[in-house]
Specification:
Elements: H1 8-20, H2 26-33, H3 37-49, E1 69-76, H4 82-90, E2 95-100, E3 108-114, H5 117-129, E4 133-140
Helix pairs in contact: 1-2, 2-3
């Protein structure tokens, strides 16, 4: 199998991990996929080593945890530098994600959380200090996600 190419078994594992990586054992994933638990463990190790599975994280409800503001900042950075800026942007206090956009005038989408406007304003200032222009800001009421259906077993 070529690097970063997944088969039906990998996709079933990925779907299960997206649903509930914390609570599903490899044996439970194996039962769903119709394979052995040892196969699931080996596949997960390979997917992790190939950076297909890049990590495991908690899906935090920032509002319930005391940070009611979730702000999307649509930004423009120099095209040759935008990818290199991502680690520095992620290091800004309050920033929880950065997405590199490849179409449109804005080419970075920065998500920041905070208790009040005074928490978000310094994020925008630090972006400006990096020569990143904040073109638009959007306040998000809620954010939900679901596992990618393309990985769902048929």
């Amino acid at each position: 199998m070529a690097d970063n190419e997944t088969d039906d078994t990998d996709q079933a594992i990925l779907h299960a991990l997206q649903e509930d990586a914390r609570n599903l054992s490899s044996d439970e994933i194996a039962e769903r996929a119709g394979i052995a638990g040892s196969t699931v463990r080996k596949r997960i190790q390979r997917l992790e080593s190939e950076d297909v599975v890049k990590g495991y994280s908690a899906d935090v409800d920032y509002q319930k945890s005391g940070y009611p503001l979730r702000m999307l900042l649509f930004c423009t950075a120099s095209i040759p530098e935008r990818g290199d800026l991502i680690p520095d942007i992620l290091a800004i206090d309050g920033v929880v994600s950065v997405q590199e956009l490849v179409t449109g005038e804005q080419n970075l989408l920065v998500t920041a959380v905070g208790e009040s406007d005074s928490d978000i304003t310094p994020v925008a200032q630090e972006l400006l200090d990096m020569d990143v222009t904040v073109a638009d800001e959007v306040l998000v009421r809620s954010h939900e996600s679901t596992p990618f259906g393309g990985f769902a077993p048929e």
